[in-house]
Structure prediction request, 125 residues.
Amino acid sequence: MRLWAEQLIVHLDRPRLLGQHRECCALRGLGWGRKHSTVDYVFVHSPLKLYRYHMLVVKEMQRRGYNVNEEWCHWRYRGQRCEAWPIEIFEDDSRLGNVIYPEHNETYLQECLQNLRGKGLNLIK
Prediction:
């Protein structure tokens, strides 16, 4: 389980892009709050950040012509087995800023690139 650095989304191959979509769906749904060392940072932020990240993935999928269930494009949607997010938790998204996850810094980008190289993918030369 990993959320790739945001700037890598447009460079991911098909399996990893689709995997990223599945990961976002899981985290937005029943996976919210479930501990995992590589994504624990997600849970200290507003779920709206995860939605914004997921929309980067969805937009790239759509750009490539992949079909995406439109329900995932609604910020409160959490999947068929979860109640929608309550509106109150999203009252003030102005404090979120432009950066989705501050953890996705240059160091994290380099870790992701190294991880992908270990899997045989050299995305950015």
Notes: The chain has one domain: 6-118. DSSP finds three helices and no strands in the chain.
